[in-house]
Amino acid sequence: MGSLDGRVAIVTGAGQGLGAAEARALAAAGARVVLNDLPGPALDAVVERIRAAGGEAAACPGDVADWAGGEALVTTAVERFGGLDILVNNAGVLRDRMVFSMSEQEWDTVIRVHLRGHFVTTRFATAYWRDRSKADGRPAYARIVNTASEAFLLGSAGQPNYAAAKGGIVSLTLATARGCARYGVRANAICPRARTAMTGDLMGPAPDGPDPMAPERVAPLVVHLAGPAGERITGEVFVVHSDVVAVLGPPTVRAAFHAATGHWTAAELDAALGTLFAEEPPRPGFVCEETLPLAAATFGEPS
Ligand SMILES: NC(=O)c1ccc[n+]([C@@H]2O[C@H](COP(=O)([O-])OP(=O)(O)OC[C@H]3O[C@@H](n4cnc5c(N)ncnc54)[C@H](O)[C@@H]3O)[C@@H](O)[C@H]2O)c1
């Protein structure tokens, strides 16, 4: 018995890299999977590999950010496999550039594929789960695993489009978790690291023997969140790679100031906030660098 026997999953961007590894792992756990990617032989090859291993898979190629394509993914899951239980949003692209050099197209492409791509599938999947929950008179089995990135935690300087899209995906995850909880939806986000086409230049070639940064190291967390244990997990953000799964804490209030007279003047703020931001030169405060020491296996031991 697999933990996902009888379940139906959609995985976007499943033609290679993390999406392909996640789709294979979901299928190995018993799920029937609908795989999306841009049309091409890569997607068909992943479908064939899952079938050759004894799994059930169907391709639904197309641009993940396309409205009709998102609807077609859910329709394919329902018509081909009888329902939908799990949505793994993973498709992505990079168009790295400093913000002052970035073109309109580079911005729009990344925001479209990542943020709109997550929204469109979520829109149709949650509508399906809401209907199913109302028809059944109880919460649906409904899992969403979204794909963010540590770029959103760090404000990746050369990726303003990507960092913004990934921050948006975390917010979308929280809004979905809150807005759809009553229908059974559990929505979480992962910030993975893996040696793929997207990161090959950064990480370099795989070592001889087992690769600690293989996409297969990320996939078990996706299976976990998609499975029975995921019932108790929602609105969480994970960092996952190699041998690490880290659960992020929420942003906290670092300091709060109250105006003595009930409202602030700029001069009073100068005095009150001045000590908090006394550091020279000023550096971004709203970043999370605690995940960086987890990076040894990715970029080598920190010097
Ligand atoms: N690899 C990492 O270390 C890392 C780190 C942080 C986040 N991520 C995220 O993980 C996800 C997967 O990345 P990966 O490393 O496997 O990259 P990848 O380039 O190997 O795979 C991305 C897949 O998305 C597909 N895709 C691109 N545009 C699409 C579209 N419009 N419609 C449908 N499919 C589309 C591509 O064809 C490709 O198969 C991405 O969202 C990425 O941002 C990866």
From TrEMBL:
Work out whether the entry's keyword set contains Oxidoreductase: yes
* Pfam families per the UniProt record, alphabetical: adh_short
Similarity section: Belongs to the short-chain dehydrogenases/reductases (SDR) family.
Q: Which ranges carry the Ketoreductase domain?
A: 7-218
Native species of this protein?
Actinoplanes sandaracinus
Cite the InterPro entries for this sequence.
Answer: KR_dom, NAD(P)-bd_dom_sf, Peroxisomal_Beta-Oxidation, Sc_DH/Rdtase_CS, SDR_fam
Its keywords, alphabetically, are:
Oxidoreductase
Say yes or no: keyword Transport present: no
The domain of life is Bacteria
Q: Output this protein's name.
A: SDR family NAD(P)-dependent oxidoreductase
Question: Matching PROSITE patterns, A to Z?
Answer: ADH_SHORT (PS00061)
Taxonomic placement: Bacteria, Bacillati, Actinomycetota, Actinomycetes, Micromonosporales
